[in-house]
Automatic annotation (TrEMBL):
GO terms, biological process: regulation of translational fidelity; tRNA processing
Name the UniProt record assigns to this protein: Threonylcarbamoyl-AMP synthase
Entry GO MF terms: ATP binding; double-stranded RNA binding; L-threonylcarbamoyladenylate synthase; tRNA binding
Top-level taxonomic group: Eukaryota
PROSITE patterns, per the entry: YRDC
Region (Disordered), start-end ranges: 281-305
Gly residues bias (residue ranges): 282-305
Subcellular location(s) of the protein: Cytoplasm
Length: 305
């Protein structure tokens, strides 16, 4: 009888501890959700979307209808719009206060889709294929001659467009759902710290009409700095021009080219690093790298992420 009483007592203690831990977990979830909601002031036009089937469907529908949707990538949060909708693209510049002279990065769901954004000669396609195979999905943006169908505002009239396949599961699912290439710089006001959490987006873009697809619970923005941006410049000689160093090191680019039999390529590095402003914090804390969107030495660099 006594041993039975002890066993029951032990079970009761375990149950109480489990309930206690469950309460702590639920409290943290409520606080996290409340902080996101608090970031959206009553006058804010932002809409918060969860990564449910309904959330992805709504986010995709918004992009197809010309609206803005902020979403996570493995680098930072991006502010996305249908890359083929010129009015939607213009709304990105307006929401960020971004100069129209700064090109945007186009996010696509696959290597094959990336080829629909650019016009490459056979040699350029070899380089594109080698680097795409090595780093996509991932934090590398390749810049190539833009196809005429792409609105000039995406390339800022340069005739060149930056393209990448993100590695974040939320970004890839959104791209698949909307069935459109998505132009997306970092989801912050121009010159501000790049966001690595949904709450950062809501705070920095308060008062702007957009939706935020919250991927914080699904996967973090792993790098917290922007993608490396490299231009495939075959016409100017066998060279790769690195406008911005970020998630992919230059040494890794060299190795990938060498492995593909393209070791003779010269790599020109125009920006030594992604500038980190005061207030930078890694993904677990504050925002990511600074908004180096075209601010590096006057070079027109496609914007993050």
């Amino acid at each position: 009888m006594f041993s039975t009483f002890v066993t029951v007592g032990q079970h009761s203690t375990v149950i109480l501890w489990l309930l206690f831990l469950l309460n702590i977990f639920l409290l943290k979830q409520v606080r996290a959700f409340s902080s996101k909601m608090a970031a959206a002031s009553p006058g804010q036009l932002a809409k918060y979307l969860q990564t449910t089937d309904a959330g992805f469907a709504e986010a995709a529908a918004l992009i197809r209808s010309g609206k803005l949707v902020a979403f996570p990538t493995e680098t930072v949060y991006g502010l996305g719009a249908n890359a083929y909708d010129e009015d939607a693209v213009l709304s990105i510049f307006k929401a960020k206060g971004r100069p129209l002279t700064d090109p945007l990065i186009v996010h696509v769901s696959s290597y094959e889709e990336s080829l629909e954004m650019v016009t490459l000669c056979p040699e350029g396609e070899r380089v594109w294929a080698a680097l795409g195979a090595a780093f996509w999905p991932g934090g590398l943006t390749l810049v190539g001659p833009a196809r005429p169908a792409l609105p000039p505002k995406v390339s800022a009239g340069t005739g060149w467009v930056g393209v990448r396949v993100p590695a974040h599961p939320v970004a890839l699912r959104l791209l698949a759902a909307c069935g459109r290439p998505v132009a997306a710089p970092s989801a912050n006001r121009f010159g501000h710290v790049s966001p690595t959490r949904a709450a950062h987006v809501l705070q920095d873009l308060a008062g702007k009409e957009l939706a935020v697809l919250d991927g914080d619970g699904e996967a973090p923005c792993e790098h917290g700095i922007e993608s490396t941006v490299a231009k495939v410049d075959v016409a100017g000689g066998r060279r790769l021009v690195v406008y911005r160093q970020g998630a992919v090191p230059v040494a890794a680019l060299r190795r990938a080219l060498s492995a593909a039999g393209l070791g003779g390529y010269e790599i020109d590095v125009l920006q030594k690093y992604v500038p980190m402003p005061a207030g930078y914090h890694p993904p677990g804390g504050g925002g990511g790298g600074g908004d180096g969107e075209g601010e590096g030495g006057g070079v027109a660099v496609p914007g993050h992420s």
